[in-house]
Amino acid sequence: MRKLGYVLALGCLLAGANGAFAGLAPVGDPIEIGSWAQAFNETGVGQFDAMVLQIVSGGPFEAPAFRDLATGWTTTDNATQTAAWASGPDSGNMTFNIWFQGGSSSPLTFNFWALHDGKVLEGAQAYWNGGGWAITPLAGAAPAADPIPEPLTMASAFLAIAGLGGYIRRRTSRAAA
Fold it and tell me: Rounded CA gap, 49 and 29, in Å?
């Protein structure tokens, strides 16, 4: 009976330790070529199909912030280079680079989220002190992507405005005659 208790306790410890090694982790040394970059690996949180970055202090990112993503992944940066979004097919393990403006001697902090179908799987805050990374868990929702108008929406809006302009012009020319 005591043996069964030990086996169950060991099983619970191993199951709990499984998630302790998951998440965002730096890989190797920073790459410095004018601006600088750091390779990161995201793994152990299950399948994810999107990642989000947001500068908290320091920075900004160098566009595109996400580079060397897996095949089929695309990236978008906001105009001020303080946030970036990447999305693609489901992945459970990906190594990628994040690029920053300036030199690697300046401290910076950014938030990172891994998502699947819009649900946050992991949030982390990464702090660079100029010589090394400290990554801590982060609670909270990821910021929404900047809205980008679809071409069809833009064309519809143009046609609606042009039609309204033509209608007003006809009504004004008839009233003047």
Answer: 26
